[in-house]
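In this supplementary section we document a worked example of the pipeline. Step one takes a protein sequence of length 184 as its only input; no multiple sequence alignment statistics are reported here. Step two produces a three-dimensional model, which step three serialises into structure tokens for compact storage. The input and output of this example are shown verbatim.
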Amino acid sequence: MAWKKHLREADVVLAIIGLLLFSFVPPYIICGLFFFITPFYLLTTGRAFLLKDFCLATILGFGMTFVFSSFYTYQPAFFGISLFPLFAWPLGLFTTKLFHEEWAPKKYSLLSFLIIYWGLLLFEEIVGYHFLGIQNIGTALYAGLPFCNCLHAPWFMQLTYLLMGPLYFFILTLVKKYSNSKRV
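The serialised model returned by step three reads:
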């Protein structure tokens, strides 16, 4: 299967297409579309083993969105839950995991995961807020991070944003360790 060696390129092309779509398609539609095609994409590219990691990212993302639902006022909403963060959180966490597996040195696993996660988070927040006009009216009055004027939210939400990546990494590590010990 010669096409399998081009998966990295396919992943990058798909990510670039997603970013370009933000120019003229509402963010919740793009994130929703990518959220629903990701499992199909993983299955058709022979990476069904990644579905559990995507499901974990989905559980964490949905939990985050539910806990902070009173702060998220993006429209549209479904039963009071804003669709944009509902789909964006799982995609962001899972994308970090994919990038980390492809490009990070294994020796500094947590450190490299944090650099990738925080880098992607800040990149998405800066581009989304300053260039694409993605702004959460519910937290607009809160100060953003001083060095980038993004992540406008209460301090505890900002802290949670920064800690979601390490939490995801920690749970992935535990799941992997537990899975490996069950096979022995």
